[in-house]
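Repro:
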Amino acid sequence: MLQKRDAEMEETEYEDILDDWFIESLKTYKDLHVYQLEHPTQVIEWTSGKTVCVAGYSPAKNEILELHLPPKLFADENKGLCAERDFKVVHGGFTDGPVRCLRHVPGTRCVVTNDGRSSYLQVWTVGGDDSEVIRRTGSIEGRSRRSRSVSEGGSRIAARRPSLVLHGGQSDDVQLTQLTSGQILYTLETDSVDPVSSLHFVSDAVFLAGCCNGNVYVADTRTSAAPQLSPPPPGDAALWWTEASPSPCRVLRLSSSGQAEVSDLRNLRSAVSRAQLDVQSRTCSLYDVTVSWAPALHGCMAVSGFSGSVQIYDTSVWRSELQEVRPLFQHRGHAVSSQSESVSSQSESVSSQSEDAVSVSSHVWHPERPRTLLSAASDGSVHVWDWVDQSAAS
């Protein structure tokens, strides 16, 4: 009886939290839409200004879907009269294994995926010929060196026009492949074997390979010169993630301890600014954390994967010396709604719930709408939200 009463009190408490967050969201969000996938995803990739691809990452068979965002999101006026307020599945298919990395090839209806277990890439055609099916149409063999049969942690992927795919799992097996012909156009030659956490095109000819140990390689495909190596920032961090902003060309490195450093591409050895982010310290894997620059909001970046929230920071106010910073905005919708649902169906202790707390598995900025993001969580929820800058509003 006592356990039941405690559960009822806990449920009431979380219902109050949910109500408070809902009331708060009326002021802090311009738009907020919620969708529930059958299985959680670690990938969200734009295929157009109104559609995204998601895919499951369970060990066996998974869905790969193209979703159309809620039409209400794009209604500038009379939003209340817009009948369709939900996501819509427009194309779908199945994969034989998990999808840990997915990239859309610009200018095409193709996406390229990797399972996180091998160096092979799978090529998919999204729809076409009035078909609603996402079907596998090819593959790309990864580069394997030093007697490794697979790349540890799979391959990172970047894509650029015209059908260029950059991929690799280690610093010495990164290559640039022409998708249509399968021709290898460039290979990254390094003396070290560092697991790669991210790949980024800076221009048609220049790309970055960010490594888990904080090393960053800058390669120019027009020359045979060795790539430029920038060592990691000082500090004792287990993992580093790298993100590049093409204009202005700033490189952001984020550690698993929450330390962030922004550098100019022309001088990666010298930090423009540093900050200690207000993130939860926990053991992270390569696929847990997502860090991204806002494409249409100067100086802003978003971080997720440390907890059940997405944090947005304004790097333009950071200084060259390390200081603790607070997020400009924090989307807590996944954590709040998950807490409420878990308590409503509570069958175990509160401590078990905290151990199984939801975490954000991925996020992505809209390419044109400055403050619109999509985020996904480990409970299968997908949110699309347009946040309000309270500092600007006040």
